[in-house]
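Hey everyone, long-time lurker, first post.

I ran two proteins through the pipeline my lab uses and got sequence/structure pairs for each. Pasting them in order. The first:
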Amino acid sequence: MQQPSVSIVVPVYNEVPNQHDDSFRVRIQGLLALLRPCDELVLVDGGSIDFSWPTIKALASHPQVSAIQSEKGRARQMNAGAAKAHGDVLLFLHADTVLKIEAWQEFIQKLGANGNAAFWGRFDVRISGESKWLPMVAWFMNQRSRLSKIGTGDQGLFLGRDLFERVGGFPEQPLMEDIELCKRLKRIAPRQFVPIRKPLVTSGRRWDVHGAWKTIVLMWRFRYQYWRGVSAQELARQYADTREKRSLTVAVFAKYPQAGRVKTRLEPLLGADQCAEFARYLLLSTLDKLHGVNVVLWTDGGTDAEWDALLEGSQFSGPVQRHIQPTGHLGLRMECAVQTHLKESRVVVLLGPDAVQFSKTDLQQLERAAQTHSMAFVPALDGGYVALACTRCVPAVFSETIRWGTASVAEQTKAALHMQCISAQWFQAQMDIDEPDDLKAAIQHGFVPEDWATHYS
């Protein structure tokens, strides 16, 4: 009898923060090494704004890989992947899960023993991370699941296509979609539950970040509330409120200071080479000004070695985390940074290195204003803005309809906020440096030292 074919469906959202991050690609290539000729891999992007979608499209050059996009949401993405898949059995894996060959082999053996594919189940799980409690967390997860026949997405849920269609796929809810799927499967096929003892390996990052016991209590509380009838939407709101985040991240946007590519409007005054030196001064002085703040550098151009060498000249404490700016207009690049950092920070500030008047006091005021109004801006004298702070992402503020790089950016941003009925706080306009007169005025007012060229030499 021919064994059922398998479609592995992986929902993806912002898994590749920069072009040099190979961890996601390595996990996918590990899955490909396991596949039999009859199997396939379906990668479903939920509208990522980092490098995930280009990476997925590149992986789809393999004949057994399909790459599609759907609306964001794990349930929506997995349902979209199932609709695209051709396999007799659907296996749903989280993007941060590693499927080892031993677990895959046991899974294939179970397929052989259940040739009609009318079964469902999950894998045991092992959690990788720093907390010493993670092995015990995994043991309890596995035992509870074995007794209750309720699996979680971390455990790699699988089921025959016919069963998937009979239960209507994953319920499109923001949380507990895996629990609800298993509850429905228990009602129609309780005897077809097949647990795989060889474990998957899943990331223990949330336990490490939030604390093992705190996370355990939180998850059990949510399951109890869901059992009592609390809606998935309400639980998702509670989950968002309970996630511990750092107070602030400052994302500094910078081009690599290459002659002829940076501060070109200053060339009549400085020349191309000195423009590059001035851009280097602006960046390093900005980083030094942000001493003690969680700063992430979003770069455009330059190699890793060139950035490492450049940043050695800064007095900034510790290594500077770096992301590569995605392609596209400035608004899209800023939106990517906001989306990325709001996952772990309550307030995100976007700042350019030529905001020479901007101080730590301004940063503190901007952070407080964002906590009150959700968005706050320090406008620039030339009609743009030198800094933005937010506690949520408002796509209209980063739209391609805003004429980026013009003197109308601030006014268009205010209009976009008005259309969204959002009241942001705007501070007094500050200087940034684009034209020769800007540099002369900055030196005259003491925002840039006259001997700037001797700094960071």
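...and the second, right after it:
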Amino acid sequence: MSDLSGRTTIVVGASRGLGHGIATAFAEAGAPVVAVSRTAAEFPEPANGAGTIQLEVADAGDPTVVGSLIDRHEPQAVILVAGASPHLRPLQQHTWETFSANWQTDVRIAFHWLREALLTPLRPGSRVVVVSSGAALAGSPLTGGYAGAKATQRFITGYAQDEARRAGLDLTFTAVLPRMTPLTDLGRSAAKAYAARNGQSEEEYLQQMGPLLTPQIAGAAVVELVQADAASIAPGYLLTGAGLQKLA
């Protein structure tokens, strides 16, 4: 996978934020990209006539859509970034519906795509990257079930790798857990809410987070991960403004 030319990459949740940065980075690395999102999005023209970006407006949580997109495009890399924006409020102010929103969306999307990758299966040598969240490690008390949903995404990515190994499939699954960044809509809202909860200004809160993760850094990191030798890929990574860090 070191050469992405001609290797179709599906990026699910590509319309904004980290997903947009990841889709753009793969196209610039030479890959034909299928950018899946619920809404239309615009992308810069890849430099030097490198890869391409084809937009697919679709519900990534619909299992019939998942199977159709994989059958039609035959990807050799699938990057799952899509998810619901959680409601930012203390536990007692959640309803069950707001608390469970990320289980119904984020986990469902990961489940359907991981399942289809194994059942189809994807071509030998293919890679699947599930973009979870650093909240899976640290918790997230203002987002209801978000942290638990993101931890479950990480768990089922590991389950998929085990099943691929048991079936003798040459597929690599890994989870990437990005740290909160104010350079996405979700991160910006969360930083504001947590700063207020801690009695800090947003600037004070963000200063303690270290180098900020940008969509461009995320894109470069995931491209590097997909291009790496499969034997060197860990089950999970923390992603910060400083890049990828293997998780134990």
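Reply from user beta_strand_b:
Welcome! Quick read of the second one: The domain at 9-242 is CATH 3.40.50.720 (Rossmann fold). The chain has one domain: 9-242.
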